[in-house]
Amino acid sequence: VDCHAGGGGGGIAFSELRRELVTVSNSHFERCATDNLFAVGATGGGVHVSGSDHSIRVLRVSNSSFANCAAYTGGAVHQDGSVAHRVELADVHMLRCTVPSGDGGALALRSTAQRVDVSISGGTWRECSAPDGHGGALFTAGNVTVRLFDDVRFDGGRAVRGGAVALLGTGAELNIRETHFEACEANDVGGGVYV
């Protein structure tokens, strides 16, 4: 609660790890933030992951919550580049996470040339926002496949493009099953989803 960092990872920063599996489970992050919400390097208010391409096989976040977290990009969680080959979020709840000027109110992931697979199952993403960017709740850029399934709920997300979800890049793929979007808004296009 009330954790802060000058750069990335107000709660936790994983940097240059070489692991098969990195897990965050049964955890609660509240009011975790980067100190400067307008600095490009201030990413991942709750968790920031950086390092070499595919140095982590799986990044798994489960049975956890992020409330009122903020950063420049990735208000709750940010992965820089293709660090983790696979990112899994299961029963993760995001509440009022924001990026005042960047992308991905709750989660932001930018891939390099290496493909990154993201699976999100269960959980609620409520009132997350990127008022001047893409993806009120979830933003990816680059060679990324995102799967949303098993009762994921996006409620009240807001952004310029993709009120809930925004995927940018020629390699972006999105698969949606049993996912609910309610009261999400975009100032430009994609009230729920922008690809």
List keywords for this structure.
10-stranded parallel sheet, 7-stranded parallel sheet
Written overview of the protein:
With 195 residues, the chain is mainly β. The chain has no helices and 22 strands. It has strands at residues 4-5, 12-15, 19-25, 28-30, 33-34, 47-50, 56-67, 77-80, 84-95, 107-110, 116-121, 124-126, 129-134, 138-141, 144-149, 152-155, 158-161, 165-168, 173-176, 179-182, 185-189, 193-194. The strands form four sheets. Strands 3, 4, 7, 9, 11, 12, 15, 16, 19 and 20 form a ten-stranded parallel sheet that branches. Strands 2-6-8-10-14-18-22 form a seven-stranded parallel sheet, with no helix packed on it. Strands 13-17-21 form a three-stranded parallel sheet, with no helix packed on it. The mean pLDDT is 93.
